[in-house]
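Why does this matter for the project? Reviewers at the last site visit asked to see concrete outputs rather than summary tables. In response, this paragraph embeds two records directly. Each consists of the residue sequence and, immediately after it, the corresponding structure tokens. Nothing has been edited or filtered.
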Amino acid sequence: MTSPSPYALRRAEADDVPALVALRREAEQWLAERGIEQWTAKWTTVGAEKLERATRQGRAWVLEDAGEVVATVTLGGPDEDLWRVEDGPALYLYKLMVARSHGGRGIGELLIEWACDQAARYGYPVLRLDIWPNNHGLGVYYESAGFRHVRTVDVPGRDTGRLYERPAAHASPARLAELSQ
């Protein structure tokens, strides 16, 4: 007999926004300590507004461990500054964050598999994301998770532009069982 999942995945609610902002601030600090400019403090207000909007629109999800929000991911449509219509249909992954207290447990990979499963369930051929060009470690992480680099674009006034995609695929029921929903 298998033990029940310690994790519960659900749509984020308005009451979760402070926890999401705390995850964002923790990620900003962690990145800054490593000299990575992605999500620097100057973007904190913008990041908080985007998290609140994604929650209000029903696009943000939270992962809880014993009732504590320990990760989040947002799914949605394309950033039209980066992706072209001719790139074709896709589901887009944004703001994947895992609390440092839960780092190294495979939660990020689990949420990526879940997002790929969501893309497949809704008929999208691929899951896409973008990262800042200077965050090479994150690019390596996503490539190790099955994403391929599509291209890098330069958009004036934007600090993002390395584009990745991974084929949509249904996750195994055993893998999804790790996320009680």
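We now turn to the second protein, recorded in exactly the same manner.
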Amino acid sequence: MKSFEALYAEYYNKVYCFLFRLCDDGDLAEDLTQETFLQAYTSFHRFRGECELFTWLASIGKHVYFKYLKKNKLDLDSANLELVVNTYCEGCIDPEEHMRRKDVEEAVREIIDGIPKKYRDVILLRIYAELSFSQIALVLKISENSAKVIYFRAKKMLMEVLTHEFEM
């Protein structure tokens, strides 16, 4: 029990930040974090140490988040896509740029909807959980090289569509 309390104290903020970046809602992130640690506690005996603890917790958190989306009949449109939009529209200030930003955000949501689950999972774990490719490989039970290829293909698809739609 004490070791799990130490794990909770050490990883709570990191898990919360990961989930907050996914949902962009502090209260929801808090609830999802609590559910993540509850599930981790009940299945701690199954943790084999094949990956880092945060990698394991992020995997649980991702599943908790997807379960929440499914239960509430939401999809990844409700996921926080601000990171992608911010990267594409750095420095957007005036009203015209604000509208452009909204257009990019809508396009990103449509693209994410069209990406197969394996691409979506890798993108979420790489961008939001900031996991290395080796950690992603362990979570998704794929090779590290596959994780890299999937990530770069998804990123390329996203950027090609954005460039085609928004470059003059």
